[in-house]
Amino acid sequence: MSEPAPAPATGGELGERRLGTIHAVAQALAIGPMFSTAVVLGFVSAPVTGAGFNTALAVLVAGLGVVAIAYAISLFARQYQGAGAVYEYLVRGAHPAIGILTAGVFFMGTLFLGGGGIYLGLGILTNQFWTEHITKSNVPAWWLLSLLFLALVVALNYIGVRIAIGAMLTFAALSFTPMLILAIAIIAQANNSLDVFNPSTTSVHTVFNGVMLGILLFVGFEAAASLGEESHDPARSIPRALIGTVAASAAFYVVMAYAISIGLGKAAVDKGAWLDPTALDNLATQYIGSWFATIIDLVVILDATGLALAICVTIGRGYFALGRDGLLPSFFAKTSRHNTPWVGNLVVVFGGGVLILVGLYSHTLDRFGLPRNFAAFFVAATAGSFAVELVYLILAVAAIGLLVRTKALWWQYLIVLVAVATPVLGFYGALNPDPHSTLNLNWLALYWALGVVVVAVVWFGAVRIMRPKQVANAASYAAQHHGVAPLDENLDFTPAPPDTTI
């Protein structure tokens, strides 16, 4: 498609193009592998709605589906670069209206997922850690701990993206090692069995249920794309980070799912033992020692902090890009003396603050029989996941158009069709078989996500009427300054020299 005439950009500038593949990988770790292993993976094993003892197989298949989504997004990433990522991809690779509307859904949905909900999770986890491993008296309130994490994340992102990414990599490295040690310890001592990979152990239908839920484990990997404007070779580094991180995370989840399954045993998994929030602690105590359970709880908090850092980078740059192109007030495009989008980052403060208030005072969440802050966290995180999965679907469908305009091979179409099907299955798995139950957190989360879509439509309608020139010239800054790679260029995954600069 032809590029619109660029309109003058407003606001500041982001940092120089000094980021490489390792920085993009750190951003893609917004998946939060250790956090998801501790908090989300158990739901994939649910005896009635999940995969039971075949959780490892379900996660393996789900991972292959999300690799297909990562490939579809990489088709855009090797052509287009910009701080708004999804926004620029769809404006320039599909249609301005699609790109702007999807940007509204994505950046508001991400605010629920990692710009607000994660701080509830961090406050709850840290409060529990303090009670269980430090002292049961004078424990700081969960909401105060949430605010402290929020301040830390915004401060690190204000100082500079390289500082924030360095912290992400440090937290990821510190948290990955104990988790892997736990898996090895379980596998070395437990009764190993390949039945976890045999669908006849449960049923194909049961495995399929787990696959549909397992997709939620990977939401967040697309955060790597937000660094395209600050990467020295984004056409290589972003696709590598997207596909490589999803593949590596899938392998990690499979190993952990296998270890936890055999560690608990089939009978216990079938009875729902994995759904116990203390399941991972119990395994650490049983196979290594109670002191190791303390370490596991700590690394989950570290990994969640890294997740929060990565999502803040994404959100800040997304609102910055929209402000720079005149689709939001120009003050969103302001940058600090460190070349960071500080106004965009403050959106995270707003999202986190609002959800903390919901976790404190929303009586509508009391009906779920959970502590109010737990219910707020689960609903917000799930609503954000629904919004992001909708964006995955739009990107995958739009990727077909990219393939049509190239000399695409048949297998590329096959991968992208898998990418289209994967988020659809994710929705089905999360919402079936309990339709519209007032006690189903997922359905309330869906209504929140639909609210995000409605707000995005209203915003798009307003800018279409009030700022038609800006709509016509959407993503103009990225088009003017970052160009377009040749559309028929093959994606090159050949090894590059090590890039370890932080």
Please, could you describe this protein's structure?
With about 500 residues, the protein is mainly α. The protein has a single domain, classed as Amino acid/polyamine transporter I (Up-down Bundle), CATH 1.20.1740.10. It has helices at about 20-30, 35-40, 40-45, 55-75, 85-95, 95-115, 115-135, 140-160, 160-190, 205-215, 235-265, 265-270, 280-285, 290-325, 340-360, 370-405, 410-430, 440-465, 470, 475-480. Helix 4 packs across helix 16 (about 370-405), helix 4 packs across helix 17 (about 410-430) and helix 16 packs antiparallel against helix 17 (about 410-430). The protein starts with 20 loop residues before the first helix and ends in a 20-residue tail after the last helix.
